[in-house]
Amino acid sequence: MTSPAKVTITGAAGQISYSLLFRIASGQMLGSQQPVELSLLEIPQAMKALEGVAMELNDCAFPLVQKIECHDNPRAAFEGSSYGMLVGARPRGPGMERSELLGANAGIFQQQGKAINEVADDKIKVVVVGNPANTNALVCLKNAPDIPKNQITAMTRLDHNRAKAQVAEKLGISLSKIKQMTIWGNHSTTQYPDLYNSLINGSNGMEHFTQEWYETFFIPKVAKRGAEIIEARGSSSAASAANAAIEHVRDWVNGTEEGDWVSMAVYSEGQYGVKEGIIFSYPVLCHNGEYKIIEGLDLNDFSRKKLKETEIELIEEREAVENI
Ligand code: NAD
Ligand code: LMR
Q1: 91 lines ligand 1 (CB under 6 A)
Q2: What is the whole-number distance in angstroms between the Cα of residue 38 and the centre of ligand 2?
Q3: Which of 8, 268, 284, 324 shows the greatest Cβ crowding within 10 Å of its Cβ?
């Protein structure tokens, strides 16, 4: 019998977790042969609600779940953990930018980074979902100096999926015909969803669209989809965010599909001329539990300009949290 993997989920009584936890527990993230121990972290005020979520998990009688723990202390929650799903953070409301959450949320990732550094399994894989995800991941990474930098990532898979869904809808084709989508940069409105390097129905993505549609519809649609959902639902995306987090970790662990790649926000070592030391979304291939940034893609002047804009924003966000 495979030994259980401990998965720590923060913000476990929140909206995203209400979808995420049940999918992890049913094996959709780590596979149907991998037992799990769920370690749920919340703030003290949310412990009663968390107990309720734990009761529901229990009542599902998922065969893979070996243990469910509820914590309000990050050190206890991350003890021996192999996976960290860092969801817990304040969401934005209508009219806000995600970067406005830095003041409220960065401290959370400082504290959790320290806890991960001290007590987690040293091979832990971390995905930061809480916004602003890239810079929160950087704060976490800087506070976990003993954890290799490539093990702390942020989620841009939701943007990646949104981009594919927009293309499928526009062309009326199946999602399986859309490959090699890339989200470059920040999980924010400066992100660059790149169709120049995508493959649609076997040919270059931009052969199917005009530059005008690309610039005036597609890019803003994907980049502002989070706000569109907040406007419609009254609260931010939850089930689609949980789905993206599942896919982010699943592919990191099990590998990307042959002939395709995914987008992950990872520590930049300067690839594509991007400033080293920010968490930047790149196209990656995953294999044997590791990701590798795809190098050597062509970037035309338009793409270079878009990468620069999102890089500048991430550098500014980094400056804003330099003290922590
Ligand atoms: P939510 O308010 O429903 O839940 C957040 C939970 O986190 C709450 O239960 C809260 O008590 C908890 N929490 C707050 N501080 C905590 C801490 N220090 N430790 C542990 N738990 C803590 O919000 P949600 O809808 O689940 O969204 C969570 C975050 O994810 C938000 O920041 C949101 O903007 C972000 N988000 C990111 C993406 C993405 O694509 N990266 C997508 C959707 C949402
Ligand atoms: C999203 O993209 O849906 C999330 O980041 C939530 C938000 O604030 O937009």
Answers
A1: yes
A2: 25
A3: 8
248 counts as catalytic: no
Does domain 5-154 correspond to CATH entry 3.40.50.720? yes
Q: What is the pLDDT of residues 220-246, one digit of tens each?
A: 999 999 999 999 999 999 999 999 999
**What class, spelled out in words, does domain 157-320 have in CATH?**
alpha beta
Domain boundaries, the chain: 5-154, 157-320
Cα of 89 from ligand 1 centre, angstroms: 4
> Which residue blocks in the chain are alpha helix, DSSP H?
15-25, 47-59, 74-78, 102-119, 133-142, 157-171, 211-213, 219-223, 225-233, 239-254, 301-320
Q: Each residue of 95-109: pLDDT tens digit?
A: 898 888 998 899 999
Which atom from ligand 1 is nearest to the alpha carbon of 128?
A: 41
Digit-coded pLDDT (tens) for 33-45: 999 999 999 999 9
Alpha helices (H) in 10-97, listed in sequence order: 15-25, 47-59, 74-78
Shortest-distance Cα residue to atom 9 of ligand 2: 226
